[in-house]
Amino acid sequence: MPLVRYRKVVILGYRSVGKTSLAHQFVEGEFVEGYDPTVENTYSKILTLGKDEFHLHLVDTAGQDEYSILPYSFIIGVHGYVLVYSVTSLHSFQVIESLYQKLHEGHGKTRVPVVLVGNKADLSPERYVNLCYSGQKEVSWTRNQSGSHSGFATDSSHFTSLCL
């Protein structure tokens, strides 16, 4: 019988970067065409990695900005973060730096996995943040590019690295 582990992962980012689309594509395997601003939503999915089973709880948050105060529920009991920006918005990428700093302050010396995701890569003609720029700003994050609409890289690659 596989060992069952529970993981809580919080998805953070500026508004309209595709956090909900990314989560929904990962859990349901389909793109949601309509847009309704998210207040907060939770998704669950079971992942099997090797002999271990992970019950993944994804917390899809409302959009944050550089002045947002992160509630304790986004800090306490969280096993990892997915920080999402849109490659079509330089400002959304700049907000990620502020969010990362707030996470670092909230967790103190405790190291928590963080995955940086440049979303909307399928809208490359409208791209404002290129791989070189985002790579220069990386700290010690795992970086991924995705396009929720096309399904490009919205498999478990963003989330499985947070389970281990």
From TrEMBL:
It holds the Pfam family Ras. GO terms for molecular function: GTP binding; GTPase activity. PROSITE patterns: RAB, RAS. GO terms for cellular component: cytoplasm; endomembrane system; membrane. The keyword GTP-binding applies. GO terms for biological process: TOR signaling. Gene3D superfamilies: P-loop containing nucleotide triphosphate hydrolases. It is found in: Endomembrane system. Keywords: GTP-binding, Nucleotide-binding. It comes from the Eukaryota. Its main location: membrane. SUPFAM superfamilies: P-loop containing nucleoside triphosphate hydrolases. PANTHER family: RAS, DI-RAS, AND RHEB FAMILY MEMBERS OF SMALL GTPASE SUPERFAMILY (PTHR24070). This is RHEB like 1. It comes from Cebus imitator. The gene is RHEBL1.
